[in-house]
Amino acid sequence: MRSTAYKVKIEDLVNGRYVSSAEGEPNYLVTPWNQQVLRVNLIATIIDKFIREDGTYATLQIDDGTATIRAKAWEEGAERMGEFNVGDLVKVIGKVREYEGEIHLVPEVIRKIEDPNWEIVRELEILDNRKEFLAQGVTPKLSSKTGEKETEKMKGEEVAPTTLEVEQVGTIEKIEGEPRPEISDDLKDKALLALEKLEGEDGTTPPDLAAELDISASKAEDVIATLINDDKIYEPNPGKFKLLR
């Protein structure tokens, strides 16, 4: 079974402790919040890009405002990285690795994010997670001044949202408009089976999925958007989707 891709900050990784497990067991990283992570789910901005002349190796350096980290890829993965540019906001799902003292990522999925408000959503998700850790008595050691201030702010028994947080939530609601339609677990399961059945070398299109499930095209797009957000599928080619295995 694929391990959970934890939603974390880059500072959690660069300030973490990498553990090389016994033979046959996967390596992992212990974050300052005492999470054992093998895979992560980050939202960050590309600040630097390198591609080897022969195209067989590439790196993207990404920054989420707390720290930076490099994502490294080889062969076909390196070719895929060439599609992204400095300044792009991206969602990266991948494995945490360490080489010669440097923590880096080996990406499984990289997807460009068009709506910057997803950064705000992620900030609030991580803030909620950290409040839960503090409630459980976990006290992290964060080296960044931002992290220390955030920890102190959350230590009180009741944590009132700051003015900035209220403004951010309002911005999300204003820009996104109506909430995304809820997709039942049954429909998601049927969609995953249909995608597996229809999946070719390049992936499945929304119209193909709609025809297979006998649903409207707009409903198929909602299902696909939900499965992408759940990290169940990805978009290897524009308009075509495949299972994330």
UniProtKB/TrEMBL annotation:
Xref: InterPro entries: NA-bd_OB-fold, NA-bd_OB_tRNA, RFA2-like
Keyword vocabulary terms for this entry: DNA-binding
Family matches, as Pfam families: tRNA_anti-codon (PF01336)
Single annotated GO MF: DNA binding
Annotated OB domain residues: 44-112
Cross-referenced PANTHER family: REPLICATION PROTEIN A-RELATED, REPLICATION PROTEIN A2
Name of the protein: OB domain-containing protein
Species annotation: candidate division MSBL1 archaeon SCGC-AAA261C02
